[in-house]
Amino acid sequence: MKHSLPVLLVMIGALGLGIWGYLATHPSIPEAELLSVMMQSIWIPTAIMAIFTGALFASSGLLIQTTLDNDFASPSTIGIASGALLGAVLVRMLLPDATLYAVWLGAFSGAAFLSILVLLVSRLIGGGKLPVILIGMALGLGAGAIASIFLIYFEHQTDGLFIWGSGQVLQTSSSALEATALPMLALLFGSLLIIPKLSLFVLGDDHAKSLGLAVNRWRWLILFLAIAQASLATALVGMIGFVGLMAPHLARYLVQYSKQLGQSTRQQIASHTLFPHWLFTLVVGAMLVLFAEWCSRSLLFLGYRLPTGAFTALLGAPFFIMLLLHRNGRALAATESQSIGIKPLLKTRAGVTLSVLLALLIASIYYWLPQSSADEFFQGSHTWTQHRILLAGLAGFGLACAGTLLQTLFRNPMASPDISGVSATSVLVIACLLVLFPAANQLALSVASLIGAGMVVFLLSKGLKHQLSVSQVALIGITITAFAGTATHILLTFGSSTASVTLMWLTGTTYAASMDQLIPLISILIIAALAILPFLRDLDILPLGETIPGVLGIPVIKRNRWLLGVAALVTAVCVASVGAISFVGLLAPHCARLLGLYRHSHLLPAAGMTGAILLIWADGLGRTLLAPNEVAAGLVVSMLGSLYFLLLLLIGYRKHNDRIA
After folding, report:
1. Which of 22, 234, 263, 443 has minimal Cβ neighbours within 10 Å of its Cβ?
2. Cis status, amide bond into 549, omega within 30 of 0
């Protein structure tokens, strides 16, 4: 501890300096009396709340990482934060006048349920550090999406919670701080009390058991303490993402710098060196949230106060990707299973399968078409619905084909426009364009979408050189999706003029269907099909690796870049037309392979027709299930796709572990 004391004092001094800077750089207020009221009622409570909640998130992250022996675990990555947000929103929706403690109870219940579900599912697939994070982030995104639906569709019951859902530390009085100061201190003190037990987890389960520790009992006890800490912080300030991930890692670097980890493992446990690590973690977490709140207040000159959680997410998402690409992350990914997939369920002739899919597509279109005569197909009162069906079919076809290309190019069954973050980033750039030019036409939206898709595809193309694992690609994509989603939600705070339009792209819908969207989409799909035709044979041999195509004289790098560009173009135009439709690009190619199709001359049209059928039915059900209210097609697909995503993980990893056994 004595070696860490100077560094710890410097950190505490830096935190004190940060508090002074936050309070001293407040907006200018000429009236002394008003300044005093603002200082006592807003800025001081806000600074204290930032410190407390930052410490709670950070402590929760350290407890989780240590007990699970997983450097990638945190409230943000195993579903705790999203579950807490969903639970708190449900309480506020059902009980608009609920007390703060009732909201905390709801947050705790949601966090406990989702995190336990994540751990149970990960145990079913045989464990693994990256798979549990993959499951946690996937379920977390689902819970966050459900919470967003409630915030959107029940705006009266959840009035004022939208920005809170993105993380809002700002306090308008000291009442919340006074009511929860004692519970926050008690939870932090609880962490202090269990540090000796927590330190034993550093040795591993077997050594801890040999020293008399009831590992399973203490693991669950510590996890519930971590859940209580994160859920209380979430109930108070909303989603402040990635603090629980970043703070323990940054604190560990500081401890290493102070030479404290230079001792042997037994010396560490004997001297409780986890205590300085815990202290450093609390200070770093407090500084991160205070800094994010400072940034939030500093941008008031724009006329809007951005959510505090937006800044931590913008810092945390790149930090998480850096961890995944770090040497330790790559080494861990190398041990993970690459064999995620399901064997074909049917083995029939390709022509028969394609004919059946075509018949199903025609039947789906006919079923959802309004009852009108054939000569009224493009005119009359039902024109809008007909356009929606055509748009859903074309967009589903395009997204499915783009997903097929990405899965083949990356030789990774988790690659798709939605899972890889391409769709979410396209929506982000579209939202930026709409903020600047609310009346932007369809061509401008398509160009903006292409820029967003191109940036992510360029980033992922680097993975072609390093052969990222299944888990790495999926986790990086989900992180990019979270990053882009957070940034998009930030733009929703810039007034209401573009908020409803941006929400349309966030949820994914055919509501704005028109010929202005259909004609460009049809044109791009035809051009993309012609661009892919010469490379169908190359796509068939690509799963064999890079060596054989090179021997055969195929320009691998040039070909990959061309096909990635085609996938990005198709995704961009589809997103510009219908928004971020999730899971179609993942689900449709898998369904086509389940039918026994592997040659891309058969696989691409089969996946495209499957995607078209899926999105047509999602759009039709969304229009009719809760009529006259409408559920966005993207939300309907997400419900089905998230279930398949979990099934894919369960069967793929389970099959791999059974094979090893």
Report:
1. 443
2. no
